[in-house]
Amino acid sequence: MESQKSNVVILGIETSCDETSAAVLLNGRDLRSHVISSQITTHQKYGGVVPEIASREHSLHFQPVVQQALNEAKLTFRDLSAIAVTYGPGLVGSLLVGVSGAKAMAYAAGVPLIGINHLEAHIYANFLEHQDLKFPLLALLVSGGHTHLILFEAHGQYTVLGHTRDDAAGEALDKVARTLGLGYPGGPQIQRIAQEGDAQAFNFPRAMLEPGSLDFSFSGMKSAVLNTLNSARMRGETLSVPDIAASFQQAVVDVLVRKALLAIKETRVKTLLLAGGVAANRLLRETLDHKLAEKGVCLVYPSPIFCTDNGAMIATAGYYHYLKGDFAPWTLNAVPGLGLV
């Protein structure tokens, strides 16, 4: 490989939930390797992630995943400029596996350690495939644990405009999918079966909260689905699962899109970044694409593989931290409830 003196090589490590992932990124653009070891099949039998099992699986797969990423990139630890790792938010046991391993490797290799906020990394996944983004930007972060609208004014400068007051959108999708017997993870299952249903069959509530509010609330929407199902069971009726799934998905997307449009109107930003696991939802992408095009606003989102938790987004965020000399101390610890600002 060419001399490392003129290159920035970041090893990114992600272990915040149920994916053990590592990636090697050159100069913030060239993804040399990307490895993901998913625990989905392990947790499916439980209907969701079991924290103790997740951390145990990370411990088993951490070293092989990192080594595979280095091997595929044809590099060694001596070639690295820094090691970036998620330190929060997430499951504390899972985070500790990644943080402890990254600290040990960075110390042994004599390279800086970079602590990465998982929420920030989801936003930075967009920079991996769209390096020409111009500030200011608006980000709609939608995942299993978080739903945020964020004004992104410069690297490292964020203002949270709105956030969920109860369930995150992805969490609500998972819970409804579980109730419908669709399995885990819920978002992809809802999307799959919704294609067979009528999105107008049920009129589930769209909580917009106070006038002008950019906050989100999905708990009432989720409860409306549960109440509809329970009422039908009490009457001895059988409801169409595809219709329920399609109607619920439509309600979630309607709220996300309306809030995003309101934020765009307030900020006058011309580019919206979609981020997080729910960013892979086709209906959300297509609806935003259509609505934003009417207003002359550009919609940017990552490839599906970079929407869910992954090491590439950690490495990308790590690259921009590296350029600022923003390194973590050796006392870096896991912060499961870490906020964005």
**Total beta strand runs:** 10
Helix and strand string, N-terminal first? EEEHHEHEHEEEHHHHEHEH
Biggest sheet overview: 5 strands, mixed
Radius of gyration based on Cα positions: 20 Å
Give the strand line-up of the largest sheet.
3-2-1-4-5
Percent strand equals 15-25%
Bulk shape: globular
Mean pLDDT metric: 94
Termini, distance in Å? 38 Å
Instruction: Supply the helix-strand structural class.
Output: alpha/beta
Portion of residues within helices? 40-55%
Q: Helical stretch count? A: 10
Low-confidence stretches: none
Concise description?
The protein is an alpha/beta fold.
How would you describe this structure to a colleague?
The protein has 341 residues and is α/β, with parallel strands linked by helices. Helix content is 43%, strand content 19%. The strands form 2 sheets. The chain has a 5-stranded mixed β-sheet with strand order 3-2-1-4-5, sandwiched between helices. It has a 5-stranded mixed β-sheet with strand order 8-7-6-9-10, with helices on both faces. α2 packs parallel to α3, α5 runs parallel beside α7 and α8 packs parallel to α9. It is globular. The two termini are 38 Å apart. The relative contact order is 0.18. The mean pLDDT is 94.
